[in-house]
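Hi L.,

As promised, CD3324 family protein:
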Amino acid sequence: MGYKKASDVLPNELVLIIQEYFDGDYLYIPRKKGNELSWGEKNGTKRALKDRNLSIFHHYINGATKGQLAKEYHLSIKSIERIIYQQKE
């Protein structure tokens, strides 16, 4: 979430009205219904993890051991097992 200066994005009249209720502090304005993003969608993290997990699975089915994958991806063997199990589904 990025911060924007209210006076840069809102009409001055609206800023003055908001200041009557909430002056000089941070105010969170939630997204409209239906515009929500799930975790990792905005910055690409969700897609990057999906690609990584698919890569781990392909390496595994092509003969890499769980130990090798754990070392290569800096994850625990338990995490590698969880990823492999999820990709099989």
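Residues 7-32+39-88 form one domain.

Thanks again for sending the construct details.

K.
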